[in-house]
Amino acid sequence: MATHRSSSYHSEDGLERAVLDLVRVGTRGHGAGVRQLASRLLRTVPPAVPDPEAFRVALHEAMVMAAGGAELRFTGGAIPTEGDTAIELADVDATPDGDGLVLEPTAMTELGEILDEWERRDDLYRAGVGLSRTLLLSGPPGVGKTMTARWLAQSLSLPLVTLDLSSVVSSYLGSSGRNIKAVLDYAKSGPCVLLLDEFDAIAKRRDDDADIGELKRIVNVVLVELDRWPDTSLLVAATNHPQLLDPAVARRFDRSLELAMPGATERSAILAYAAAGATNTAGGVSSSIRALVADFTEGYSSSDIVRMWSLVIRRAVLRDTNVEDVLLAEIARIGAANSQARDKVIAELHARLGLSNREIAARVGVSHPTVAAALKRAGKN
Ligand SMILES: Nc1ncnc2c1ncn2[C@@H]1O[C@H](COP(=O)(O)OP(=O)(O)OP(=O)(O)O)[C@@H](O)[C@H]1O
Ligand SMILES: [Mg+2]
Q: Using CA positions, which residue lies closest to atom 25 of ligand 1?
């Protein structure tokens, strides 16, 4: 077994040691340590590696890429911390993942426009305009505001720096103006997407006399920063409660995008993406079942759909059954809340999937006569 003191990767278990060391150092976020270990691996390729020369070349390339990569481009030093403590005020994600984002077409178009602006900034400058540097995202919980910031960062190949304003404002109110400023300065120091999440936190407690002074200071810090935000980093603010924001603040953003609850088309697309990612054969979902689920999940947020999918796939694995059956049972359950809706589920299973009464009964978890009666009420039998 690898020991913590391993100094060479020459031994039989060298590869194992190297991986463990990398994980140990990497999970601490110790970038310099990872690079040191990589250099050592370059010198002593573990005997278990089949093609040492190719491994050296690949390792070298990975190191060069990292050196030019986003992670190292911050000139503002380390991530700012709270006072003298080691508590980091912001979260830095060097490889943000926004894959699978589904928004209504107009919202996607607008995001695409932002990417185009960044791509063609020179053309914009020649035309005498700048590009969008700041974006206000609003919308109900679970529609993908945070995910959109990840998607933007990923698409722009930039790291994502996240500052959760609600936690900064609530935990360290006295010093939050200073803390926010520190993170903004950090984010400005290198190209990145800065997400100011739960942005309304700076507006929420305005009636609370004790806090008014500090919150005013914070709002002022943010106002000034929005005006002079550089075009090397994209500032994204996300909020569930845009109406709580001071109009002076809301007006300062270059763009404002409201994300709506997903429609049936979007719900179906989110499900399709989730299902495509399912690794076992039980994961397949036909488009007709997807459409059925989409129809029966009116009022579900995008995040509700993803959560429902996880639940369904877990159940399918545990029960060793196929995921379509579990999905159907789930919409039958949604429908069961009122008998009219259940009738509709039964009628749809009959009409869209052409299932027999017996199959419907088994899938919905009701008796055979109940199915017959429901279909009769629906005028189908
Ligand atoms: N538009 C979307 N397309 C695909 N998946 C989504 C979408 N919105 C949300 N999800 C899923 O739900 C999860 C949570 O969404 P996210 O945190 O982005 O929502 P939010 O709008 O920021 O919510 P909150 O207001 O609660 O912060 C995502 O990680 C993703 O799995
Ligand atoms: Mg969020």
A: 141
